[in-house]
Write a structure and sequence with these properties.
The protein has 327 residues and is α+β, with helices and mostly antiparallel strands. 26% of the residues lie in helices and 31% in strands. It contains 10 helices and 16 strands. Strands 2, 3, 4, 5, 6, 7, 8, 9, 10 and 11 form a 10-stranded mixed sheet that branches. It has a 6-stranded mixed sheet with strand order 1-13-12-14-15-16. Helix 2 packs parallel to helix 5. The protein is globular and about 75 Å long. The chain starts with a strand and ends with a helix.
Length: 327
């Protein structure tokens, strides 16, 4: 994400508080990190998460964007307390799949149907889904036929988060009047995460073996990264705050302009942003109340509405204690 950083005010950070993400110990990382898994066909997404928990010896983990048992591909996994970030990281996805038509039909009609289902569509989630079964609008950014062999259609799809590809294939079959089902499907991308970034369960097990038996954590550290590094994959823009504002945010206060040190350009009014320390630690997710252009000039006002605090209280001291210590 090539974002410029606009400096609002120069601030000093105290090295005695907090810790840059890259300086975290492995145990800290395993209990607050992020992993890009290449899910195999067969198990459910939840079953794969349980395998990851067993391999890494962690109690809590969760995934972003469920994949059906017979679907493989990119499955982002959040470890430990980073699971609370899931709601803010579910971005658009890309797939490659095979649609099987139930009868013969002219090629042009298939291409016309694909065009009809590109753009904003209304989709009714399948009966077996985790959401309420009512029509929802979703955007299909790209739906491309790669190859057609008999009744099988190899396609690529780039869709908004929450789009059901199996249902999309079914609806195309209904539009054609001959029926269709999904034969094969693989998720290749989530946000800016590519399948090239993903690791298999076998590779993860090998990295854990090296750590436990050879005390070599280098490979594991390449696979499990700090949540802060993962934010860029999801295009999350950031605001950096002064040390004096950190514990106040963690204690329920809202961020006021005097505590704002810097921010990315191109932030939109109402956009979800990550609130960061100047050591690049994630403090909270919040809704920006101003655009970047407005933040440059705004003074002494509340600048965000906190959505979810991610940092524990007490990691940074309250500004009152720091002020008293200096006095």
């Amino acid at each position: 994400m090539d974002e410029l950083v606009i400096i609002k005010r120069d601030v000093h950070t105290n090295a005695g508080y907090g810790k840059a993400p890259k300086q975290r110990g492995l145990n800290e990382l395993l209990n607050s990190g992020f992993l890009i898994l290449d899910k195999p066909k067969g198990p459910t997404s939840n079953q794969v998460v349980e395998q990851v928990k067993a391999l890494l010896g962690v109690e809590i983990a969760g995934h972003i964007g469920t994949l059906d048992p017979e679907v493989s591909g990119v499955l982002p996994i959040l470890l430990g307390k980073s699971v609370h970030a899931a709601a803010y990281l579910n971005k658009d996805k890309k797939y490659v799949g095979v649609m099987q038509l139930h009868n013969d039909i002219e090629e042009q009609k298939i291409r016309d149907a694909f065009l009809k289902f590109t753009g904003k569509i209304k989709q009714l989630p399948p009966v077996k889904s985790a959401v309420a079964r009512k029509f929802r609008e979703r955007e299909i950014f790209e739906l491309e036929i790669v190859e057609m062999t008999g009744r099988n259609v190899l396609f690529k799809a780039h869709v908004e988060a929450g789009t059901y590809i199996r249902k999309l294939v079914h609806d195309i079959g209904q539009e054609l009047g001959i029926g269709a089902n999904m034969l094969e499907l693989r998720r290749t991308d989530v946000g800016e995460i590519s399948e090239k970034d993903a690791v298999t369960l076998h590779e993860l097990a090998e990295a854990m073996w090296l750590f436990k038996n050879e005390n070599d954590e280098r490979l594991l550290r390449k696979m499990v990264i700090p949540l802060e590094e993962a934010l860029e994959y999801f295009g999350i823009k950031m605001m950096w705050i002064a040390d004096s504002a950190v514990n106040a945010i963690c204690s329920g206060a809202q961020l006021m302009e005097p505590g704002l040190a810097a921010f990315n350009n191109k932030i939109k009014d109402g956009e979800t942003v990550a609130i960061m320390t100047t050591k690049d630690e994630l403090v909270a997710f919040a809704k920006s109340l101003y655009s970047s252009d407005e933040l440059t000039d705004v003074s002494r006002k509340q600048v965000v509405k906190t959505l979810r605090v991610m940092m524990d209280r007490g990691v940074y001291p309250s500004w009152k204690k720091e002020k008293k210590k200096k006095d």
